[in-house]
Amino acid sequence: MNNTDIFFLFLSFFLSFFLSFRSLFFPNGSALRLSVYRTEKNWSAAQEYCRREHTDLATVYNMRDMNRLCGDSCKEGWIGLHDQQHTNRTWHWWSDGNGSSFRNWDQTPQSNHCAAITRDGRWRSESCETKKHFYCYNANVVLIPLNKTWDQAVNYCREHHHDLVHVRNKHQQRWVGQIAQMANSPFVWLGLHYTCTLQFWFWVTDKSVRYNNWASDQPMNHCDMSGAMEKGGKNQWYKKPDENQFNFISELV
């Protein structure tokens, strides 16, 4: 067997492993529950309201979310997509910090910096100061007051709900932290895990780790470790051995 054959054999093995790994840990689907408000606000005021009363302005992951959001007919209103000025990644930023790449523009976005849904279900860029209806979402999470290992917690959440929780930004961090305070264990499991094979931390809900709240003294790269949030204090994150048993927080379907 020559070097070329060995290379392609290794490549085939790696791709097979990665696809199996992804199907095991990365289920499809969105756990968002969306609400539309007929009160008219500008984009910033709508964002403030959604963060106070729900989780944030709506993030749309795919056409299924669009169909759930609009139903039989769409109401014109703000969603969480906005264009962060003075960066190279235009129209990349969602209000909740999510990196969803799904887009549904009705035309090339103009120089306005906030996105709204039109009556026909497409998106349009408009002045952020315009007052419109708006769409909020709830992340819908619940504390499970049972002490389980990290793997057991993952299995429980997937069997009864959706998955272990992932934290997108400081606003969700605050909300999840409030729920963690009701736990009967010193930490609660998050859906955060380190893979030695691929050498990175990942959320099991197929989201990249954009926001984090690690305690400053936490070494990052250890095998057989997962992320847990402390019940008290600043609700910081700590890496803990997978076999430790804690309460955990599930995202609902």
TrEMBL record:
PROSITE patterns found in the cross-reference section: C_TYPE_LECTIN_2
Keywords recorded for this protein, A-Z: Membrane, Transmembrane, Transmembrane helix
TM region positions: 6-25
Pfam families for the chain: Lectin_C
Matching SMART domains: CLECT
Positions of the C-type lectin domain: 32-137, 132-251
CDD domains: CLECT
InterPro entries, per the entry: C-type_lectin-like, C-type_lectin-like/link_sf, CTDL_fold
PANTHER family, alphabetized: C-TYPE LECTIN DOMAIN FAMILY 20 MEMBER A-RELATED, C-TYPE LECTIN DOMAIN FAMILY 4 MEMBER K-LIKE-RELATED
Protein name: C-type lectin domain-containing protein
Organism: Sphaeramia orbicularis (orbiculate cardinalfish)
Lineage: Eukaryota, Metazoa, Chordata, Craniata, Vertebrata
